[in-house]
Design brief:
Chain lengths: 536, 130
């Protein structure tokens, strides 16, 4: 249960990995319970398990687990290196079991959101005693080499204070109808709660800067979502009740809390423009430095990630048709705007237009912003398509038993999603072509021509001068003049390419040298949909 | 020791400033660009910081950009590893992808918010800062 609520995926990873290692350990224990001794494979196995758990618990700074596993690691290292005979197997397996139980117990605490505070000293002392006796008996000279086994972690992860011992509350404060400045009252409450809050969100949001919020609070109440360590009584003590009529106070679960946040639109969400089946199955974009630059707050507002400026939290799926008609309307709006602003009725001499001009300048700037937002909603990178192409190229090359290197450039370039949809088939066709017909079947041929035995296929996108260039090049056999003209005339399956790119104004350029390779370039004008309105 | 704290949220800033001041002199900046500036200035003055605590979500440059920039400056100047500033990312972003990336960029530690003060102190000890 606790796992569901656990938002800390480093913790889950730790628990998962440790559990896996413990399972391995327990398998060895149960297999060798009745045996006379561990064999070499067991000893090395246990050594590895200890080493792994020590390492990951070290990063997480669970000192007791790290310490215990470290000692066991040492002992098993000794056993592995010394090949000591006459090891009291029963005692040893007893201690390994005790350790396994200890770690299981600690993992359980972690899963339940508690601090793993178990005392490992008993286990460690027993082991030390066992080790000392063993060494005396064997009297061997194995040195505890420093080798690969003792590197301490150099990077650490500190889990935040356990989230699970916090409470989640949904509080709605209703003020008496005659309360003056209920927004100031509400602010005082919010301010007071801030000191005990782990997280605090309230509506209306701009209680100080928005004067209408006072009325809103009186009619709808002041809504608060609070995550805190404080119990209900303490919270109630903090809230000033002198002007309140009623306070709805609900304790909710973490999941409900997140749902409430999402409903308020306060959770980071992404507008996902759907219908790209190849987009959906893709991995989330990797994080890069710069993703978390915060746009400085406007007065009274919460900061927003610059990256998400045009995106809202918890994506909405918008279907294509609606997006297209929005786009079309924006286009029409621009035309209508021009029709108004450049209207011939305004050209009458002597008209006093300064107010009109001010108002129209504002209108124009809003329309420009609107167009930009709509455009940005439609932008998509080539990444999903290019990743697919890489896979296709490698599949085809494997099938044909050709060794190729597939290089992708410019996959982060963003273009209107209409372009992405239209280039999928053509690019796939060209990529397959390049691998199949471009690259020589026999690597020896390549070597004889002074090329590397590995065929080079490159898929590249770049934006320039209002156009996007997507090129597929190979360093294979190239085409003779006849072939080039045949290709240009839609031969050799080129119709599929043309059929797809013509509707978006695209053209195909073929550049090929016999023996050196071929480069096919799709040239597509950017943003084919919104055309700035022209003067009427 | 000399500490640089970059944190844009007032409440967190106040809290961290108070915590860190226990261990040494703490300079506070409110965005990523200032953090790099402060780092440079200290370096130029021959009084480099021993520790930087960087928030991830900040204006102008985020914590990752600051981390990367600092590591690049250090590399370019050929500062030996043991003299490089120790960097702790402090953030509420706790998913694995974020943590792994921060580690890859070369931070010493990644501390989830709200900060666990006791663990934070034992971390400083592990980093041999106190």
């Amino acid at each position: 249960m606790a796992e569901e609520f656990n938002t800390d995926s480093m913790l889950s990873t730790f628990v998962h990995e440790s559990t896996k290692q413990l399972k391995k350990l327990n398998d060895i224990i149960s297999k060798k319970q009745g045996a006379d001794c561990f064999d070499d494979a067991d000893i090395n196995g246990i050594f590895r398990i200890m080493h792994t758990i020590k390492g990951i618990s070290g990063v997480m700074m669970y000192e007791n687990i790290t310490n215990a596993t470290h000692r066991f690691e040492d002992v098993f290292y000794y056993l592995r290196e010394s090949h000591a005979g006459d090891v009291p197997h029963k005692a040893l397996i007893g201690m390994v079991s005790a350790l396994s139980d200890f770690i299981s117990g600690e993992l359980l605490k972690i899963q339940n959101g508690n601090t793993p505070d178990g005392d490992e000293s008993q286990i460690v002392n027993d082991l030390q005693q066992f080790y000392n006796e063993l060494k005396d008996a064997v009297n061997s000279q194995v040195r505890m080499a420093e080798e690969d086994k003792n590197e301490d972690p150099v990077q650490f992860y500190i889990t935040s204070r356990a989230e699970e011992d916090t409470y989640y509350y949904k509080i709605v404060i209703h003020y008496k109808k005659d309360t003056v400045m209920s927004n100031i009252q509400a602010y005082s409450v919010a301010y007071a709660l801030k000191r005990v809050a782990v997280d605090l969100v309230y509506t209306p949001e701009n209680i100080l800067s928005d004067d209408s919020s006072a009325d809103k609070i009186l009619t709808d109440g002041f809504h608060i979502l609070l995550q805190t360590r404080a119990a209900k009584e303490e919270i109630m003590g903090i809230i000033d009740t002198s002007d309140t009529e009623k306070i709805d106070f609900d304790e909710i679960t973490a999941a409900e809390y997140r749902k409430e946040l999402a409903e308020l639109g306060r959770e980071e969400e992404l507008i996902v423009i759907m219908s790209d089946d190849y987009e959906r199955e893709n991995e989330p974009d990797p994080i890069v430095p710069g993703d978390y630059v915060v746009r400085p707050k406007d007065t009274g507002k919460r900061g927003t990630l610059v990256k998400n400026w045009y995106k809202q939290q918890t994506g909405i799926n918008v279907d294509d048709e609606k997006m297209d008609s929005l786009m079309e309307l924006v286009g029409k709006l621009s035309i209508a705007e021009e029709a108004v602003l450049q209207n011939s009725d305004l050209k009458v001499p002597g008209l006093e237009l300064s107010n009109f001009k001010n108002a129209s300048a504002q209108l124009s700037s809003i329309i420009v912003d609107l167009r930009e937002v709509v455009m940005s909603m439609r932008m998509m990178s080539f990444k999903s398509v290019f990743n697919k192409m890489e896979k296709i190229a490698l599949d085809v090359s494997e099938e044909l038993d050709k060794d190729i290197k597939f290089e992708v450039i410019g996959e982060n370039i963003e273009v209107d999603k209409k372009i992405i949809q239209h280039i999928y088939d053509p690019v796939m066709h060209l990529v397959k072509n390049a691998v199949d017909h471009g690259i020589e079947s026999d690597a020896l041929d390549r070597v004889l021509q002074g090329k590397s035995s590995q065929g080079q296929v490159k898929l590249e996108a770049r934006k320039d001068d209002g156009k996007v260039y997507i090129s597929i090049s190979d360093d294979g056999i190239g085409l003779d003049k006849e072939k080039v003209s045949e290709y240009s005339k839609r031969g050799a399956g080129m119709d599929i390419v043309m059929k797809n790119i013509q509707p978006i104004g695209g053209t195909l350029e073929i550049d090929s040298t016999e023996g050196k390779g071929t480069k096919m370039t799709l040239i597509i004008p950017l943003s084919p949909t919104v055309v700035k309105g022209t003067r009427v | 020791m000399r500490i640089l704290l970059a944190e844009d949220d007032f409440v967190s800033r106040k809290f961290m400033d108070k915590q860190l001041s226990k261990y040494g002199e703490c300079d506070v900046v409110v965005d990523g660009e200032e953090a790099v500036e402060a780092f440079m200035m200290a370096l130029e003055d021959g009084e480099p910081y021993d520790l930087a605590c960087l928030d991830v979500m900040m204006p102008v440059m985020d914590g990752y950009q600051v981390l990367r920039t600092i590591r690049n400056i250090e590399a370019q100047r050929g500062i030996p590893k043991e003299n490089c500033i120790k960097i702790i990312m402090t953030t509420a972003l706790k998913d694995e992808r974020n943590v792994r990336m921060a580690f890859k960029l070369g931070c010493e530690a990644y501390a989830g918010k709200p900060i666990d003060v006791e663990k934070f102190e034992s971390l400083l000890r592990k980093l041999k800062l106190i």
